[in-house]
C-alpha cells in the first residue's frame, strides 16, 4: 500500500460551520491530492474527498446547469431537474476504493489536524496559510512539485499563445483569400 508522506492543512474558522480545514496529502513523496475536507460530523471528524458538482445540459442552448436547477442559467428555459438526494449533487474526483485505504487516509489526515490543534499550529485568522504537518521533513519535494506546476502553467500559457497566434494567422489568410475572391 502507498504511504502518506505529507499532510498539509489550511484551517477554516467558522463558528458554526462543519468544515474545519482543507487538506493536501502526498503519497510516497510522488503523488498529491488536494482539497480533501475535514468535516466535524455527528460521530467526530471525518475526511471528505475532493469532488465536483454534477451538471446536466440545457436541451435548448446546451449550457451546463446544476442538476437541481429548475431553469437554465443562460436562456431561462424551464428544465426537468433530477430529483436526487443532496449527496448525489457532487461526484468524487479521487477516492479510495476500499475501506482499509479510506481509514488509513482518514487516520493520517485527522491525526495531523488534531495534532495541529493541540500544538496551536494554526493561526487565528479566517484562512491560515498551509500548515505543514509533522509527517514530512521534505520541503524540497514540495518545492519540486510547485516548480513543476509553475513549468506546467508556463507551458500551458505558451501553448495557448501559439494557438491564438495560429488562429490569427489563419484568420488573416482567410481574409486575404476572401479579398482575392472578391477582387478587392
The outline comes out as elongated
Helix/strand class: alpha+beta
What kind of assembly state do the chains in view correspond to? single chain
Number of strands: 9
Describe the structure.
With 184 residues, the protein is an alpha+beta fold. The protein has three domains: 1-50 and 93-136, 2-Layer Sandwich (Arylsulfatase, C-terminal domain), CATH 3.30.1120.40; 54-90, no CATH class; 138-184. Helices cover 35% and strands 26% of the residues. It contains two helices and nine strands; from the N terminus they run E-E-E-E-E-E-E-E-H-E-H. It has helices at residues 99-119, 139-181; strands spanning 4-11, 19-27, 31-41, 44-48, 51-53, 55-57, 64-66, 90-92, 131-132. Strands 4-3-2-1-9 form a five-stranded antiparallel sheet, with helices on one face. The chain has a two-stranded antiparallel ribbon with strand order 5-8. Mean pLDDT is 75; it is low at 124-172.
Set out the fold topology.
Layout: E1 4-11, E2 19-27, E3 31-41, E4 44-48, E5 51-53, E6 55-57, E7 64-66, E8 90-92, H1 99-119, E9 131-132, H2 139-181
Antiparallel strand pairs: 1-2, 1-9, 2-3, 3-4, 5-8, 6-7
Quick recap of the structure?
The chain has 184 residues and is α+β, with helices and mostly antiparallel strands. The protein is 35% helix and 26% strand. The radius of gyration is 24 Å and the shape is elongated.
Amino acid at each position: 500500500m502507498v504511504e502518506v508522506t505529507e499532510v498539509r492543512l489550511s484551517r477554516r474558522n467558522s463558528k458554526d460551520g462543519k468544515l474545519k480545514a482543507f487538506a493536501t496529502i502526498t503519497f510516497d513523496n510522488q503523488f498529491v491530492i488536494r482539497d480533501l475536507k475535514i468535516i466535524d460530523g455527528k460521530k467526530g471528524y471525518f475526511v471528505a474527498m475532493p469532488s465536483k458538482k454534477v451538471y446536466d445540459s440545457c436541451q435548448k442552448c446546451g449550457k451546463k446547469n446544476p442538476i437541481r436547477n429548475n431553469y437554465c442559467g443562460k436562456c431561462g428555459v424551464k428544465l426537468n431537474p433530477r430529483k436526487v438526494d443532496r449527496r448525489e449533487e457532487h461526484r468524487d474526483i479521487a477516492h479510495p476504493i476500499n475501506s482499509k485505504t479510506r481509514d488509513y487516509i482518514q487516520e493520517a489526515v485527522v491525526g495531523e489536524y488534531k495534532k495541529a490543534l493541540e500544538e496551536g499550529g494554526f493561526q487565528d485568522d479566517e484562512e491560515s496559510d498551509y500548515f505543514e504537518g509533522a509527517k514530512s521533513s521534505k520541503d524540497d519535494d514540495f518545492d519540486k512539485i510547485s516548480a513543476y506546476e509553475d513549468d506546467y502553467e508556463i507551458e500551458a500559457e505558451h501553448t495557448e499563445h501559439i494557438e491564438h497566434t495560429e488562429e490569427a494567422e489563419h484568420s488573416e489568410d482567410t481574409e486575404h483569400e476572401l479579398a482575392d475572391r472578391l477582387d478587392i
